[in-house]
Write a structure and sequence with these properties.
The structure is a homotetramer of 300-residue chains. Chain A is of the alpha/beta class and 300 residues long. Chain A is 52% helix and 13% strand. Chain A has an 8-stranded mixed sheet with strand order 3-2-1-4-5-6-7-8, with helices on both faces. In chain A, helix 5 links the parallel strand 5 and strand 6. Chain A is elongated, with a radius of gyration of 23 Å.
Chain lengths: 300, 300, 300, 300
């Protein structure tokens, strides 16, 4: 099988490598010539532009986009579209918002698959988990590629119509935030608590048979092993949050309570309040107002 | 009527003043002679010790304790008890834990009233809200004093048996935390949000007829007037929390969900995590673990 | 002064009454002829249509809309617009979404004021709290009307440019949800807790001098007085939630944590899950999965 | 090695089986003679009482308690103690409160190990995760038994001094509640959301390579496979909660915010409010109070 891959960042490169390794042909393009060269070294045929990539693919083009969510996807699709027809298949393997995917599926001249991809760079060896939305025939057509990119046949599933792949991935990410925060609460209590514990040991014994074992807990174990039981110099300002925000917004739309996911999300917002949380500052002034508790002041 | 007042801090002094003003006699004692002198200046008869105060009161002693919750109450009661019998009445007007009040009521030789007192120093002029637990006859006996200390006859109520006064006051304080945090959330959103608003104006117009008007909102208005719409130099580390903790513990005991009160309480804990929240630091390391997001580091 | 009022529901009728009472003239219209008749009985001049109302107003028209938020506002404005020019002023006193108000202000031929109105039907006597956005000259022009509709000169404020009035009202409503939920938590704990308390008494004594006194707490007192201390037959499914949802969405947009407002909002969603919360049902099956705890089953 | 096992419920029987299978000798006792007979069938030597069990063990007794947390542990220890000396080792493998374990360790005549045991009945084949507190020499002495009962040498760890094993297990359970609730939120959103999804498929593809893969997610997959994607007749009232309550209480004690664990815990409390949540009922009455929204009433 022949696959065009557009977008050769960390994740796109893994797609290239796994597809090549499975014995397929890859034509690769990225705006960064160095990334194209790396893919070529790995065995892919380099393309000079989106158009060139499309030209090099024969009839029944199969193309995997791994470009940053947002405008880059639309720009790439605009360049691609003149080269596409209804027998072609485009996969968006990035973290796109599901409503964008629904819209793109409607206007794209090819069949359009929205593919939520989980597993991160660590999936290079194990393979990814792929949640795919869009036309069933296109999903089946791409099965050899999905087999290669995923952990195997069990690592990809057809979720449903257009947008459903990115929808399930969006919820996955919301869940991910709350799982991380949950382990964080547990370890914070153990760290501040009554016993002087080796948290790597705790994570390790939990990972061997405890109800709460998981891959994220294996990453906790790794974190304590590499950073020390007090996490050394790791700081507490957390970036990111867009997919979690989408999840909470969809919960509001569907009137589904998501208090744990919400709390985990806004913990990130709170961590970025560099001048101190306004609500806390007001509370301090109110405590003076009714109880004459001394108002703490910033040092300048 | 003659009232002994033990404990002449800010709140105790207000009790003295209001009771004197209502035309009653006060005998006052505090470990700090200056506080006793101030009370004497206001018209109270000074006592030199707890025993001396008890001796100066005739039969049917009525005594108001306004000492810090905890050991100081027990110590004072220990000194008082030899002077007390079942026709005497002791009021604990402080922020005692209700189970301590139940215990003290059982061992005290006098009738024992636990009196939750709300209103803060600002109550000096308006009077306090008094929630009183203990024997009904003792509550009625003290009515002239309660009328004087409270906002009037409507400002005090008999809640029920021993401990119920401090129980209701404990819940009051939990509610207070969450009300403050709620206004804080609203003003934080207005402060960070799309419009350049004068928050004093917002608080003022809300206080004139809006559903959410309240005394705490009047204190918000005062805060913005005195500190400026961005709260100037007020810092964000919030001290305190014991009565809120009791409320949440009682919620656990009674299996009553108190998510808003809990969240407002632990916001204080979080504001005191000077080295950064451990849970957030772990999240950052995990985000590297699965997504190779760069780990932020503390500057040293 | 002459004011056209369109929309004569409960709130619109109060506007008519208060403006008339202040000595102004009112021309009134509603799709429901009975409502128009009621306004006419109160002293307003009835109009037969939006156009008719516009015709009856002279130059420098001043018009107050009190129609349901959403399409009804747009439909009314469409009918009005041919009659308007830049010297006219339209006030939207309803619960419109602030971004709709920004959009309407841009296209309306008259000066447009978005006016958040709080106080509910209870404001008939006291007057409302009015948060007004839009051109300053228009706000000043309408001052006599605002003085009449509000609690007085302190009951209305100019918040800022277009949309700011409804923006502040949106946040007001989010705060309102969380304040209600907070009092609910407190009274739920008192109701389920250790003492047999008269909750009307508790609310009453708190309203007389306690830190947490407020108008909502007065409504709690009324609730217990009229329904009984156990709230009698009042059910627990809570409708509504749109303005709270907007507040939370804006918090996500501005990256401001609003955990109390969020929790209060989704409490409503949860109260409407008639088949049982899916998350809880899954938890029960998982408890069987790892611990063989018996799975509870629905009775059919 | 020879091990006495007291308490032959589901978990105790698994201990017996795994220790026998590893080639050790077991003397078994339970108050229920049938349970003893089952153990005997499996190859254990039956005992007739706690004393009899102690007598049958030689010097350097090693005894594993697997009785319900609480009074049963104290009662058993009281019966055992006259037979014990400082060369003996008692393991409490149940879900005891860590402060009880500290107390028992102090008074027990033998060395005392508190052993948190996770994995549930499902651990019969795989083995458990064991978190052990108490004297190091005793932990090492019991290693062959721990190797047999756990998943192997990596499945047990010495956490620290007395109580630390049950302390870590307590936190484990708090984390467990929040992980379950997190997955529940995600699947609830998918169930109520925009797409008609097969939740078993979703869980399956997530378990194959996604960041959020875990054993609990495997149990979710099993739940949807066995109950159907809508969880069939599973009801939503959740029992239990004691270990989660302990975790939250310890968080209050240590001033560590645990909002996700708290929320997951009180979700259980809320699921058991058969007459409707009081706080919601009050909110409905307040909505009438300020907005004349109709009060919903219970049908009787």
């Amino acid at each position: 099988m022949q696959l065009g891959v557009i977008g050769l960042g960390r994740m796109g490169q893994i797609v290239v490598d796994r597809v090549l390794e499975a014995g397929h042909d890859v034509i690769a393009f990225d705006l960064d010539p160095e990334a194209v060269a790396t893919a070529a070294d790995a065995g892919a045929e380099p393309a000079e532009s989106v158009s060139d990539l499309a030209d090099r693919l024969g009839e029944e083009k199969r193309i995997w986009l791994m470009v940053p969510a947002g405008d880059a996807v639309d720009a790439t699709l605009e360049d691609l579209d003149p080269h596409l027809d209804s027998e072609d298949v485009v996969v968006d393997g990035g973290n796109s918002y599901f409503e964008d995917s629904v819209r793109r599926a409607e206007v794209c001249s090819a069949a359009y698959l929205d593919c939520g991809t989980s597993g991160g760079p660590a999936g290079a060896e194990l393979g990814f988990s792929l949640m795919v939305g869009g036309p069933e025939w296109a999903y089946e057509e791409l099965t050899p590629v999905f087999d290669a990119v995923a952990t195997g046949p069990d690592g990809h599933e057809h979720m449903g119509e257009a947008g459903s792949g990115h929808y399930v991935k969006m919820v996955h990410n919301g869940v991910e935030y709350a799982l991380m925060q949950t382990y964080g609460e547990g370890f914070e209590l153990l760290h501040e608590g009554r016993y002087d514990l080796d948290l790597e040991n705790v994570a390790s014994v939990w990972n061997n048979g405890a109800v709460i074992r998981s891959w994220l807990l294996e990453l906790c174990e790794e974190a304590f092993r590499e950073e020390g039981t007090d996490l050394g110099t790791v700081a507490d300002r957390i970036e990111g949050g867009s997919t979690g925000t989408w999840t909470v917004q969809e919960g509001l739309e569907q009137e589904v309570p998501l208090p744990l996911i919400y709390t985990a999300l806004v913990e990130r917002f709170g961590s970025r309040a560099d001048d101190g949380r306004f609500s806390r500052r007001l509370a301090n002034r109110l405590r003076y107002g009714f109880g004459r508790h001394e108002v703490p002041r910033r040092e300048d």
